[in-house]
Design goal:
Elements: E1 3-10, H1 15-18, H2 30-45, E2 50-60, E3 64-67, E4 71-76, E5 88-93, H3 96-108, E6 113-116, H4 125-134, E7 141-149, H5 154-169, E8 174-180, H6 190-193, H7 205-220, H8 223-236, H9 244-253, E9 263-271, E10 274-281
Parallel strand pairs: 1-8, 2-7, 2-8, 3-6
Antiparallel strand pairs: 1-10, 3-7, 4-5, 9-10
Helix pairs in contact: 3-5, 5-9, 7-8
Length: 284
Amino acid sequence: MGEIVLAAKVTHVPTMLMSEQPGRIFGTRQPAIDGHLEIARRAKALGADTAVIFDTHWLINAGYHINANHRFEGLFTSNEFPQFIQDLAYSFEGNAAFGDRIAQVAREKGVYTLSHQIDSLELEYGTLVPMHFMSREADLKVVSVAAYCTVHSFETSRKLGEAVREAVEASDDKVLLLASGSLSHKIWANDDYEANNGTFTISSEFNRQVDLHVLDLWQRGDWSTFVKMLPDYADFCCGEGSMHDTVMLLGALGWDRYQGKGEVVTDYFPSSGTGQTNVVFPVI
């Protein structure tokens, strides 16, 4: 029987890529990179063969969608930040059968979900950035789930997370589950960015304080409190993709019945006004 061997909430900021390139950003995101490498090492040690990524950079407006191609290969340039991510080469094996299984189980739960094998359907950088680093430590198949959900309820996203776990348990796959997105996500206004050294600062002290409180809840394992505050947190602190990635992740882990305690493997850091971290969640 398959299993989710490890779960994590991870950052995907473009400055991680820039941190390995000459320039003023060089070396500044090494802790975030090290966090990704550590997560991949742990997943490999636990036998993971597939990474399922809830990607808050894949925007969808109807239904739920899974990019479950047999193989992903190409060059990626971000249409959001072409000056930051351009011609990023990638090559990953996919796990089409598993992506199809997630969609089937989700539909059985009443959540309309489609799994796609379309060569021209590109991966987004919420998937590509983590896998760019994690693939250095572990050879993982990739399944990307859209998590920038514009007209979707938390209830159906929670059920999609449940479907992922049920699909895993009905398979032979060992899965690393990643919620790829920020904590608070209020990006600096363009006119204020330079004056506030925006690359390395938070745009709202309120958001920072709430982010730190959330990390404390995660580390204490107070999931019942967190799920109660999650809708307001996502709303008032501009959660990336409305934090549907986090909802899906918790749905897979058991929602408010989850009893694990989060382990911060990359200390909280601001980036372009947003709050970022890497946190591992043990699978109970």
